[in-house]
Amino acid sequence: MQQPFTYKRLLQYFLQGVLILAPIAITFWAIAAVFGFIDGILPNIVHSIFPSLMEDGQGHVRSIPGVGFVVVISLVLLVGYVSSSFIFTKIVEGFDKVLEKTPGIKFIYSTLKDFFEAFAGEKKKFTNNVLANVDDNDVWRLGFITRDDMTEFGFKDYVAVYVPMSYSVAGNVYIIPKNRVKPITNISAAQTMKFAVSGGVTDVIEPMV
To answer: What is the number of domains present in the chain?
Structure first.
């Protein structure tokens, strides 16, 4: 039997549509914003170097649709390709030392660097996924051990656990005893992060073997 139409049901459909479309729309918006930014500034840069090449018949600067996408993808691939070369590594190391010694900038740069390396670099930190009993009760939080020895902070047999917040890029770090941490062995670290950030609504469909 078909259920009668109500405004409450209409509102429910609308909210369900928002929940489905919002993450997709935000992702595409962020990508389009980056590419649009490159598309906006690159013609002017090229025009300042080669004026005749970038001007139309009325003397206006011509736009090049899609060039932002090509430039960003090409730059990322190029950096990834040459990153293993000796000369490039030394250049990056030198640039890295300068930024880390510059007052004001070093805090922002080192924080961002550590953050991205924790996710994707050789020093990955968010790989040891655990259940953390932060409040010493029967409530457990999903987290990641980022440091397994806190002796230098005066805590023996303690670990540092990063607990991500749902629907946010933020999180908290807790220093808790090792005996209040349980390793998660049946799902991967990536699935744990996705489940935590989504507020527990994401299905865990790919168990580890």
So the answer is: 1
Q: What is the mean pLDDT of residues 177-200?
A: 87
* Residue 56 within a domain: no
Residue in this structure with the two tokens 């023996």, named with its chain if needed? 156
**What is the domain extent for residue 188?**
129-197
- Quote the percentage of the chain above a pLDDT of 90: 17
- pTM across the whole model: 0.49
CB atoms within 10 A of CB 124: 13
**Positive or negative torsion for Cα 179, 140, 130, 126:** negative
Rounded CA gap, 176 and 145, in Å?
10
Print burial letters for 141-159: b (CB count within 10 Å at least 16), e (below 16): bbbbbeeeebeeeeeeebb
Q: Taking 70 as the threshold, does the pLDDT of residue 124 lie above it?
A: no
